[in-house]
Amino acid sequence: MAYFEHEGCSLHYEIYGQGEPLVLLHGLGSSCEDWESQVPELARHYRVILMDIRGHGRSDKPRERYTIPGFSADLLALLEHLQPGPVHLVGLSMGGMIGFQFAVDHPEWLRSLCIVNSAPEVKIRNRTDWLWWFKRWSLARLLSTEAVGKGLAAKLFPKPEHAGLRRTMTQRWARNDKRAYLSSFDAIVGWGVQERLGQIRCPTLVISADQDYTPVALKERYVDLIPQARLAVIADSRHATPLDQPQLFNQTLLQFLAAASTTAQGSLSPC
C-alpha cells in the first residue's frame, strides 16, 4: 500500500507491472478492489496505477464538498507525484466522468482515454431527470450503505451464477462512509463537460454495456462529438461490466490499448 498527500488529504494508490502507464479509476462507492479481475491481465503488459478516489476505499474522507474537477485535480497530483509521463486512462462510471474532466483539462497527460458505462454530463433538464435524481438522492440518504449495496448488487448481478458477486458487492458497499458517499453522489449531479468533448484529441474508446443504466444511443451521440472516438458494446452486461464480463472487457480494452500505443509511438504529442 502506498499513499501521497494532496491538499491535506491522504490518498491511497497501488502500482502493478511494468510498461506504459495505465491508470484505472473506479466508480461511485467503489475502490481499487473492484479492478481485481483486470489487474493480473493488464499488469502483464502495462504499469497499472490504481487510486482510491477521495472519500473512497483507503483514501481519506474529509468533511468537505466534493466535485468532479476536485477529483480530477487529485489525479493530476498523483501523476505529478509519480511522474510516469503520459498515461492511458480508464474510468468506470464516476471514474469515467473524472476521465472526461481530466481529458479536457490536461490533454498533455494522456496517451489514450477509455470511458466505461459513463457520460460527459449529468444535468437535470426535465421532470424525468428530476424524478430519477430525487429517487436516488432519497434512497441514498434514507437507507444504510449496506442496504444500498444489497439493492444495487441485486440489480447489477441478477443471475444465479452471480451469487458470489452479489455477496462481495454488498460487503464492500457496507464499508462506505455514508457522508463521503453522499458528497460524492452530489458531486455528480449538475456536472458536465459535454460542450468541450471536441477538445479530446487522443484515441478514445467508449465501452457500453448493452443493459447499462443509460442507453447505447446516448453513448453513440457523444462519441460522435469526439474526433478519435469509437464505441464498443458488451453484450449481456449491466453497469459493472469489468466485473460481470471480465474476459470480454479485458480483451476489448487490451486491443484498444495496443492500437493506441502504436498510434502514440508515431507522435511526440499523443493528445
UniProtKB/TrEMBL annotation:
Record-linked SUPFAM superfamilies: alpha/beta-Hydrolases (SSF53474)
Keywords associated with the record: Hydrolase
Gene3D superfamilies noted in UniProt: alpha/beta hydrolase
Database matches in InterPro entries: AB_hydrolase_1 (IPR000073), AB_hydrolase_fold (IPR029058), AB_hydrolase_sf (IPR050266)
Residues of the AB hydrolase-1 domain: 21-244
Xref: Pfam families: Abhydrolase_1
PANTHER family assigned to the protein according to its UniProt record, in alphabetical order: AB HYDROLASE SUPERFAMILY PROTEIN YCLE, MONOACYLGLYCEROL LIPASE
Protein name: Alpha/beta fold hydrolase
Organism lineage string: Bacteria, Pseudomonadati, Pseudomonadota, Gammaproteobacteria, Pseudomonadales
